[in-house]
Amino acid sequence: MPAAIFTKLSPLSKQDSDYYAKTISQINFKADTKFCSLAKLACSASLDLIYHLDSPPTKKTPTARVYNEYAAPSTVPNQAKATTSQEKMDPFSFFRSSNLKEGDTIHLSSLQESLAQRAFLPPLIASKLSLTLKSLTKLFPHSSKGAIETTFSYCNAAPIKGELKSCPKSLEEMINFSKITLKASKLLALTSKTTEGSDRVLMIEKVKQFNVEKFVACHENFLPFATYYCHSLPSSQIYAVELIEPTTRTPVNTVLAVCHMDTSSWPEEHVAFKILKFRPGQGEACHWLDEIDLVWISDGDNI
């Protein structure tokens, strides 16, 4: 399990978990300071959040960090659309698979995450929650309604052709979705090694393609508790890319890259097409996995 996931495990004791599992279903329950502190949740609307890939990391963007590469802009709330349109588009967010050549240089986008630290809810508490805007804004009245709304707009967006998707409320739900999707009883979690080399030009020393037919990629969204947008898309490939300093050839990082080979079902307005200068279906789009993204594969895969 990646270290980034370990930091999100719930700190609640069994006694506290059992207590809140009983009380959270009560009509008048609202997340107070004590509950948020004990469970390590983000219950303040003043938290700085970022929008992923559509804009560079910034502490001036009070919108949810969401990750649905395929949703059309019409599915995003006006606040989020207005904010991202004002931000400079990161020209290194997407690249072509032909850029992954050993010996070539490539600009690594930022792998650092600026979301507030939040823990997963224990499965017993998570099972009591209804993932609706009305329910969560009632339970977490001081959290950012706009950020929650943005996350739901992506989670509720219609899947593209061949996509299986879920927004699990807990780590256990994430693992169960991945097991069902991959038809596997045991999983391996893959992630980029570190955030070293972020936003720098580096040399590609080695590229390894994982020999897997199917995988589940999970990208963190914002809700008051840790939650992810998980999906599986056909015609996608995973690579482990070893990066070194161009001059000294000193090892810097090993970063995961995901390439979606079929973009024919992506919305024409997608940011990838603005960066890569082609239209849906005219080429593949690749992106890096940042420090809290992860990919699940079957433990039985010959990687």
UniProtKB/TrEMBL annotation:
Keywords: Apoplast, Cell wall, Glycoprotein, Secreted, Signal. Residues 94-299 form the BURP domain. GO terms for cellular component: apoplast. It is found in: Secreted, Cell wall; Secreted, Extracellular space, Apoplast. It comes from the Eukaryota. PANTHER family: BURP DOMAIN-CONTAINING PROTEIN (PTHR31458:SF16), POLYGALACTURONASE 1 BETA-LIKE PROTEIN 2 (PTHR31458). This is BURP domain-containing protein.
